[in-house]
Fold these 2 entries.
Entry 1:
Amino acid sequence: MATQGAPVKYSKHSPALAMTLSLIFAGFGQLYNRRYIKGILFIVLEVSFIFTLGRFINYGLWGLRTLGVTPLEDHSIFLMIYGLISLLLIAFALGLYILNILDAKRNAERLRQGESNPKMKETIRNVWDRGFPYLFITPGLFMLTFIVILPILFTLSLAFTDYNQYNSPPGNLLNWVGWDNFKKLVTLNTWSETFFDVFTWTIVWTLVATTLQIALGLFLALIVNDPRVKFKKWIRTVLILPWAVPAFVTILIFSAMFNGEFGTINRDLLVLFGLEIPWMQDPFWAKIALIMIQTWLGFPFVFALFTGVLQSISRDWYEAAEVDGGSRWQKFRYITFPHVMYATAPLLIMQYAGNFNNFNIIYLFNEGGPPIPGKRAGGTDILISWVYDLTFEINQYNMAAAITIILGLIVTGFAFYQFRKTRSFKEEGNM
């Protein structure tokens, strides 16, 4: 006897069989479920994929595995790109294939429970109502895959090859070398000394320059926010002016001012004290100059940020602290500073992440110089500017890619921490 509410003819309808048929060939499960139009669409999609992209994917996977077998005829870089595109196409196809299997299972379960297949109009309406966001997100995701993800995968792949100025296609074929490039960075003296020096300076640069610009911005915001200060609007306008000037213009002007031969800092200012500092020639003084310039460039944004937050703090809190006998330092420590940090911490974290990859100031000031004998990087190069030099100056693409991966992991850690501190990736019900 059939179960109550389920027609006899569907009581033995098997979801497992529907899934198996869809696994054998996309659309077969839908035909088994009597969803003929949907089944035909899935069949057409798989047949079209096989006949139009099958040969390309097969060639791409071969090229990614071998990177070519005949110099001058096979180009390893093109083969690598074809292979990566093939992997992405396979990922999209697998996604649709899994969707086809799950759809067959759901429809089979509905039939087994006695529900009838929806009409075509009802199906289209359900797709529009429930799949509307996905329909509009899909083109963007598809473009993002080939504009962002593909270059990232290409960089990741280069880090595991021997692609450099002495081994470049099409005259030479590339080879997969595993983790050799990363081992060179930490074990081979010619690379490890430079890598650790640049990495250390990158950390010092990030911490010192960013902390100074935040401290200066907070200090000025506290002064301007003091009730005793008049002409607040004019003072804020003047302090934000450095932010209005394009950063590259400011950096180039400072580069000229710090020039040891004709720069105004040495010739017009320090000469009064009998000093002449080699800003461009000595790595130490070049680093000091860069930190000062970045402090000048970065404090206006922090100042504007803190000014808005300070104005949102209730005056009642300060009045209550005064009644309790709180000093200025205690009010700053227990009221102002915690409130400011709570409201701006994610943005301040991103200031550190931004300076970690601040290529513009390093390159525009003195192109990462001055050069240091025996080192593969300039005296003020940070990781991102060193990657630029390795890529465009000496064509060490494999090592540049390896450093880029390390750089990306560090910045990703910063970004992940920042997102954890905001509501950007929290569900609506968990706000």
Entry 2:
Amino acid sequence: MIFLDDIRKAAAILDGRVIRTPLVRSATFSRIADAEVYLKLECLQTGGSFKVRGATFKLLMSSGEIGGGGVVAASAGNHAQGVALAAKAAGVAATIVMPVWASMGKQEATRNYGAQVLLAGDSLAESISIAKDMAEDGRTFIHPYDDEDIIAGQGTIGLEILEDLPDPDVVVVPVGGGGLIGGIASAIKPLRPETRILGVEAAACPSAFESLRKGRRVTVEAKRSIADGISVKELGETNFPIIREHVEEVLLVEEEEIASAVLALLERKKILAEGAGAAPLAALLSSKFEVPEGGKVVLVISGGNLDPPLLERVVRQGLLKNGRIMRFSACIDDVPASLSRLLGLVAERGGNVLSIHHARGGIGLSLLRARVEVEVETRSFDQIEDIRQRLTAAGYEIKVRR
């Protein structure tokens, strides 16, 4: 178990070495939830996530044991950058084993922080196993979550939350291997036992959810998720008993819900969060847990390392889910002004055309007609339905696509 004194020691050592991230109230999300909603912005931490806390504390506690080979770690991205930064600050070499599917942006960021990157393993578990084997040559292995010093370092977030907001009713934390929620829960529960600690996982990889349900650690099959930072197939051995004792519930969120939360943070708070970091907001906006009326809710936005190509896809998915984009196809006469008449009706109902694909010919299509695929910016599903009805009333047969 991790004790409060361990976390207080970590906080004292990390003071001045990591950023004390802000806890900010969101008027928009507070209004939506009918509660006082606060965001703990670890996405503003050095390296873009909370991981540098645990990595820095671990390296400092292990400084007398680290040999000339330096340290080796395994990570899909955020722990990699945290270890790279901590190792650079400590003046030791770092080798990071990353799964072959790790994003190119996180690979490059890790290299830019001074670490050597090795792509190996089809899963994080395989990468961890490879890194442990590499540690046999004299390097010190830094586990991403199943380590008491790592957990204590992450737990400093819990102390900061209580310093800024002494009486939260609910604290919602992303769950991957369990180091973050294990540390936060170990900090908060001894000081304020009435605070509910909730975990959030992507439904695509429900390892903590299934472990709590079955009463033992289990390994699950992981599907692809935009919340890659919490796609961990099995909870850490050290973390599971902490979660079982201190965490009231683990919630599951779907990919569309995560995408909507990423978009909401961008639009409403101008905050860039990766999928894992947005998962607590996804749980709030999709009503996955009860919020006491007027109660105080803290959402831990754990990281902001979202690659630009994925960001584009996530934002588009969020817009589609929220009725902000309408996509439809229609057949029109292949004569002058036919397309402009169709688009004029869309504009008449307030739609803003984003793109058009115009094609002649094709199976089942008359030689005298053309098929158009149109994407329109909209305000809501009500406006989408209004445009659909207007086009139908004008004689067009349209197919609205999601």
